[in-house]
Amino acid sequence: MIATIAAGKRGVGYLVGACMRRTVEQVTSPGKRHLATRRIHADSRAMEWTDHGILLTVRPHGETAAIIDVFTEDHGRHSGIVRGGTSRKLAPVLQPGAQVQVEWRARLEDHLGTYQVEPVRSRAAVAMGDRLALAGLNAVVGLVSFCLPERQAHVVFYTRTERLLDLLGQTEIWPLAYLHWERDLLEELGYGLDLSVCAVTGQTDGLTYVSPRTGRAVSAKGAGEWVDRLLPLPPCLRGEGTAPDVEIAAGFQTTGHFLEHRVAAELAHKPLPEVRARFIDAFTRRL
């Protein structure tokens, strides 16, 4: 009864803390006391971790703080508050696409928590100096924010994303790398394309189309009367050929179909971010 009244006046956190202290006090054996304390410390460690990642979004919070969303290697997409995030010291660091080292802390695991942020490297200079690079950077962080669920690790895909962003500014190879990244994103979300064999004939050569319904490759022979309804399968989407820009553009048509009609429609239930369309538009202007 007394504990209930205390919780009402001072909050549930006070009651939990009191119960934890009482648990330790009731353990009279030194060995048991050490074990109980160690368990409490273990629970505390679950609410604090350090990781590195890619800054996705920043939005103001209160007068001086900011809420940031970071795509981390081991903890996935994870948000948190940065105290003083809008200050002159931190604002230049908290730019989308920046590589950062973060330390996250919270009283409970499901709380928003706070971040301590250390810059590793900025990608702003490269992006600002090239229109295509800037559009590409925005497309990557926009799609990651849109597609990936929060607090779920995607270790392999994280590595691919970091490598892609490190290629920014290399305009001759970046669009193809980005196309393959979109293909990998579809795979990561469970909408992978099967481009190895014709869904109709079973052949492995002459694959020129993709079924918009199944995501499987179709050969010219197997297309038949459905040819006008199929999506293009350029060799570069399979990692073959010299990958001219016109082929890459055709690949964007195919990956874009599945991002829009599978990921956005079935998973997110809202339209794709406009940043992808802006990148495709910037790329097609150089054709």
- Beta-strand proportion: 15-25%
Query: What radius of gyration results from the CA coordinates?
Result: 25 Å
Largest sheet: 5 strands, antiparallel
H and E order: HHHEEEEEHHHHEEHEHH
Mean pLDDT rating: 87
Number of separate structural domains = 3
Residue share in helix: 40-55%
Low-pLDDT windows of residues: 1-45
- The main sheet orders its strands as 3-2-1-4-5
The helix-and-strand class reads alpha+beta
**Helical stretch count?**
10
List the helices and strands and how they pair.
Blueprint: H1 2-10, H2 12-26, H3 30-45, E1 48-61, E2 65-72, E3 76-82, E4 99-105, E5 114-121, H4 124-128, H5 131-147, H6 155-166, H7 174-188, E6 207-210, E7 217-219, H8 220-223, E8 231-232, H9 245-268, H10 274-284
Antiparallel strand pairs: 1-2, 1-4, 2-3, 4-5, 6-7, 6-8
Helix pairs in contact: 1-2, 2-3, 5-10, 6-7, 7-9
In short, what is this structure?
By secondary structure, this protein is of the alpha+beta class.
Q: Your description of this structure?
A:
The protein is built from ten helices and eight strands. It is α+β, with helices and mostly antiparallel strands. It has a five-stranded antiparallel beta sheet. The protein has a three-stranded antiparallel beta sheet with strand order 7-6-8. Helix 1 (2-10) crosses helix 2 (12-26). The protein starts with a helix and ends with a helix.
Can you tag this structure with a few keywords?
three-stranded antiparallel β-sheet; 287 residues; OB fold (Dihydrolipoamide Acetyltransferase, E2P); disordered N terminus; 3 domains; 45% helix; alpha+beta; single chain; five-stranded antiparallel β-sheet
